[in-house]
Amino acid sequence: ASASELCTDVCTKCxxxxxxxxxxxxxxxxxxxxxxxxxxxxxxxxxxKDEHELIQHLVLHGISDPEDYISKAMGCKSxxxxxxxxx
Length: 87
Hints:
Layout: H1 3-6, E1 9-10, E2 17-18, H2 21-29, E3 39-40, E4 47-48, H3 51-60, H4 66-73
Antiparallel strand pairs: 1-2, 3-4
Domain C2H2-type: 41-61
Organism: Pararge aegeria (speckled wood butterfly)
Protein name: C2H2-type domain-containing protein
């Protein structure tokens, strides 16, 4: 049996799976915003306090390059000026 087949506890709000009820309970808390939550998933109501946690979560949604996805979603551009554009 593969590790994914052993996961019996599944989040109903996102693709998260675990075989530990305590881990699932902690995960479910992140589907409620808190005062420390400054990042939110683009696909589901999942709130985290740092970008690294969001990156890990986006992988669950099948995002292969979460850093690039976040950059594009936030409208971030390279700090280098593009040719032919005015700042």
